[in-house]
C-alpha cells in the first residue's frame, strides 16, 4: 500500500494513509440502495444465517423481504418519510430486514436495549415519538402500556401477550412479508420500487448513546454516514482482494457497533452474517465451527473470555476458519492482545476506535503495518481527519503529545436529536467532533487512546489517567478485570482507587499486595489509595464498565463518611 502524508506540520492535521473513500456520486442513494446495488452481482449468495436454527436468507431473498416489508409499512401501517419506527428486539435475521425496510422508505429507525426498564424506554420514546414499535412476544407486556401500534417479529398466539388489545395495530412480521418462493419472485411479487426521493443526507437512524458517563442522547445518523462507515470498515478486505467471508454478529444490533459495523458493512461487501441472539462463549465457539466463520467483531470482555478459557477451547472446538478478530468499544491492554495472538496464531487480532457519533468507526489497525499488538487503535479510516488538541491551551499538538482527540469526516453524525446545545458543544463550526477522549498519534500515524477527558482524576494538581492504571492492574496474573475511579479527598481533591475482579475467588491477593504492585510502577501521585475486591463490574451491553454507577456509589459513601465525621456529640 502506497503511503500518503499522515501528519501535515503546516495544518497540524492527521490524515489517513489508506486509499481514498469511494462513495456514490448520486446523492439520491439510500443505504438500502447501496447494499442491493452491490448485491446484484451475487443474488444467490447467503446474506444472513440464524445461528440457533440454521435458517438462511440469500441476498435475493433479503431484497424480497425488505421490499415487501417496506411496501406494507407504507400501505398498511401508514409509515411515511421522517416517521420514527422503534425496534426493541434481540438480534435476529429479521431485525436486519426491518431496519432496512424502515430506512428504505425514508422513515427513521431507532433502536432500544430490550433489557431497558419501562422508565428507561419511556425516556427514549418521549424524546423520539415513534409511530410504531417492532418487538418480540416476550417484550409485549413491558411495551403495551405505551399504547403504540406493535409488529411482532415471530409467531405466537395466546402466549404473546395478554395486553395486545390495548394497541391500535397488532400484527405479525410474517403477515407483512408473506412467504418467499422462487415462483412469487419470478412473478414480480417484489416489484415494489424503493422511493427515489431518499437522499444520502436524509436521516436514516437515531442510535442512542450508551450513557455510560451521563444521560443518553439520540445520535442522528444519515444514509451517507452508514454508507461511509461500510466502506471504511471493509477497505482493507477490498485492498487485499479477500474472498467473501462469514462474519459472526453477537454484538447487539441495537448498538451502532453491532449494526453499522458488524452487520450492514459486512452485508454491503457481500459477506454472510451469522446472527446470534446474544453472546455466550460456548455458543459463539460452536457457531464459528458450524458456519466456518472467518471474522468477528468483539468487545474486550470477549477477548478476556477467550484468553481465560484457553487451552480448553482449542481441545473442544475447531476455529481454523477464523482469520480476523476486530475489537472495539474500549481499549484492550497489550498483554491481553498478545495472549490471544499466541493462542490463535493464524488469526489477525486487531483493535480499533470509534463512537456512535462517528457511526461506529474512526480508526483501525492494519495487519500489514508494523507491530499489530502495539496497543494502538490503528491508523485513521479512509476519509477521516484528526487533530490532537491541548486541553489547557487548545492549540493543536504534534506527534507523541497527548491531548483531546478531534476528528471529522463523512461518517460524522448530523447532531443530537432535539438537543442543539449538546450538538454545538460537540461539533464546532469547522466540523470537528470534540470526542472527549484523550490520546496521541505516533510518527507512523498510529492512534493511541489514553482515557476519557471527563474521567481524568485530578489529584493534587496532577492528572491521573485511569486507563493507565487499569492496564497495569490487568497485567497482574491474578486480576481479570479492573476499573480505577476518583474518590473525594480533602487535601488532594481526588485520589485514585480501584475496583478489582480476581481471576480466582480463592486468591489470597490482598489490598496491600495490589497497592504495592502499582506503586512499584508509577509516580507517587498515581498510587492507589484504596482497592476494593468485587465479584464483577457493572457493564453496558457492549462491554464498557458503567463508571457512573460506581462513581455515584463512591460519592454517596464519601458524603456519608463526611456526615459521620461532623456529627456533633450528644450532650450529657
UniProtKB/TrEMBL annotation:
<dbReference type="Pfam" id="PF00501">
    <property type="entry name" value="AMP-binding"/>
</dbReference>
<keyword id="KW-0547">Nucleotide-binding</keyword>
<keyword id="KW-0812">Transmembrane</keyword>
<dbReference type="GO" id="GO:0005524">
    <property type="term" value="F:ATP binding"/>
</dbReference>
<protein>
    <recommendedName>
        <fullName>4-coumarate--CoA ligase</fullName>
    </recommendedName>
</protein>
<dbReference type="InterPro" id="IPR025110">
    <property type="entry name" value="AMP-bd_C"/>
</dbReference>
<dbReference type="GO" id="GO:0016405">
    <property type="term" value="F:CoA-ligase activity"/>
</dbReference>
<dbReference type="InterPro" id="IPR020845">
    <property type="entry name" value="AMP-binding_CS"/>
</dbReference>
<feature type="transmembrane region" description="Helical">
    <location>
        <begin position="84"/>
        <end position="109"/>
    </location>
</feature>
<dbReference type="Pfam" id="PF13193">
    <property type="entry name" value="AMP-binding_C"/>
</dbReference>
<keyword id="KW-0436">Ligase</keyword>
<keyword id="KW-0067">ATP-binding</keyword>
<feature type="domain" description="AMP-binding enzyme C-terminal">
    <location>
        <begin position="468"/>
        <end position="544"/>
    </location>
</feature>
<dbReference type="InterPro" id="IPR042099">
    <property type="entry name" value="ANL_N_sf"/>
</dbReference>
<dbReference type="InterPro" id="IPR000873">
    <property type="entry name" value="AMP-dep_synth/lig_dom"/>
</dbReference>
<feature type="domain" description="AMP-dependent synthetase/ligase">
    <location>
        <begin position="36"/>
        <end position="417"/>
    </location>
</feature>
<dbReference type="InterPro" id="IPR045851">
    <property type="entry name" value="AMP-bd_C_sf"/>
</dbReference>
<comment type="similarity">
    <text>Belongs to the ATP-dependent AMP-binding enzyme family.</text>
</comment>
<keyword id="KW-0472">Membrane</keyword>
<keyword id="KW-1133">Transmembrane helix</keyword>
Amino acid at each position: 500500500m502506497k503511503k500518503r502524508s499522515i501528519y501535515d506540520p503546516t495544518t497540524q492535521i492527521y490524515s489517513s494513509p489508506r486509499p481514498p473513500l469511494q462513495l456514490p456520486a448520486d446523492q439520491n442513494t439510500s443505504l438500502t440502495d447501496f447494499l442491493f446495488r452491490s448485491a446484484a452481482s451475487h443474488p444467490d449468495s447467503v446474506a444472513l444465517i440464524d445461528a440457533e436454527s440454521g435458517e438462511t436468507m440469500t441476498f435475493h431473498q433479503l431484497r424480497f423481504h425488505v421490499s415487501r416489508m417496506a411496501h406494507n409499512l407504507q400501505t398498511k401501517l401508514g409509515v411515511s418519510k421522517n416517521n420514527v419506527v422503534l425496534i426493541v428486539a434481540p438480534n435476529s435475521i429479521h431485525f436486519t430486514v426491518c431496519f432496512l425496510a424502515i430506512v428504505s422508505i425514508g422513515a427513521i429507525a431507532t433502536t432500544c436495549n430490550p433489557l431497558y426498564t419501562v422508565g428507561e424506554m419511556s425516556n427514549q420514546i418521549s424524546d423520539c415519538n415513534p409511530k410504531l414499535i417492532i418487538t418480540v412476544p416476550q417484550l409485549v407486556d413491558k411495551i403495551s402500556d405505551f399504547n403504540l401500534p406493535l409488529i411482532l417479529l415471530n409467531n405466537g398466539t395466546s402466549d404473546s401477550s395478554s395486553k395486545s388489545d390495548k394497541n391500535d395495530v397488532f400484527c405479525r412480521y410474517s403477515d407483512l412479508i408473506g412467504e418467499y418462493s422462487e415462483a412469487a419472485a419470478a412473478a414480480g411479487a417484489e416489484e415494489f420500487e424503493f422511493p427515489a426521493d431518499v437522499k444520502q443526507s436524509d436521516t436514516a437512524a437515531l442510535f442512542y448513546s450508551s450513557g455510560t458517563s451521563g444521560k443518553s442522547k439520540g445520535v442522528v445518523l444519515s444514509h451517507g454516514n452508514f454508507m461511509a462507515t461500510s466502506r471504511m470498515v471493509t477497505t482493507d478486505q477490498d485492498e487485499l482482494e479477500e474472498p467473501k467471508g462469514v462474519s459472526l454478529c453477537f454484538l447487539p444490533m441495537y448498538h451502532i457497533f453491532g449494526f453499522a459495523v458488524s452487520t450492514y458493512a459486512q452485508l454491503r461487501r457481500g459477506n454472510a452474517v451469522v446472527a446470534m441472539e446474544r453472546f455466550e462463549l460456548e455458543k459463539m465457539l460452536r457457531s464459528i465451527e458450524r458456519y466456518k466463520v472467518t471474522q468477528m467483531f468483539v468487545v474486550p470482555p470477549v477477548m478476556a473470555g477467550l484468553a481465560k478459557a484457553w487451552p480448553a477451547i482449542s481441545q473442544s472446538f475447531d476455529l481454523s476458519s477464523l482469520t480476523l478478530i476486530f475489537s472495539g468499544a474500549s481499549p484492550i491492554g497489550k498483554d491481553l492482545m498478545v495472549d490471544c495472538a499466541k493462542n490463535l496464531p493464524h488469526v489477525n487480532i486487531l483493535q480499533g476506535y470509534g463512537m456512535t457519533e462517528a457511526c461506529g468507526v474512526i480508526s483501525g489497525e492494519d495487519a500489514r503495518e508494523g507491530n499489530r499488538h502495539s496497543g494502538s487503535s490503528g491508523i485513521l479510516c479512509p476519509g477521516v481527519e484528526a487533530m490532537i488538541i491541548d486541553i489547557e491551551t487548545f492549540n493543536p499538538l504534534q506527534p507523541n503529545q497527548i491531548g483531546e482527540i478531534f476528528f471529522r469526516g463523512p461518517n460524522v453524525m448530523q447532531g443530537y436529536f432535539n438537543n442543539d446545545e449538546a450538538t454545538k458543544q460537540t461539533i464546532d463550526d469547522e466540523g470537528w467532533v470534540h470526542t472527549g477522549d484523550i490520546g496521541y498519534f505516533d510518527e507512523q500515524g498510529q492512534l493511541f487512546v489514553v482515557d476519557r477527558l471527563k474521567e481524568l482524576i485530578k489529584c493534587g494538581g496532577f492528572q491521573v489517567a485511569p486507563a493507565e492504571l487499569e492496564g497495569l492492574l490487568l497485567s497482574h496474573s491474578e486480576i481479570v478485570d479492573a476499573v480505577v475511579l476518583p474518590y473525594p479527598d480533602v487535601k488532594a481533591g481526588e485520589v485514585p482507587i480501584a475496583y478489582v475482579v480476581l481471576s480466582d475467588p480463592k486468591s489470597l491477593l490482598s489490598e496491600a499486595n495490589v497497592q504495592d504492585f502499582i506503586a512499584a510502577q508509577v509516580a507517587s501521585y498515581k498510587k492507589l489509595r484504596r482497592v476494593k475486591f468485587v465479584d464483577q463490574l457493572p457493564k453496558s451491553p457492549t462491554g464498557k464498565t458503567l463508571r457512573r454507577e460506581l462513581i455515584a456509589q463512591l460519592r454517596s459513601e464519601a458524603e456519608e463518611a463526611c456526615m459521620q465525621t461532623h456529627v456533633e456529640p450528644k450532650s450529657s
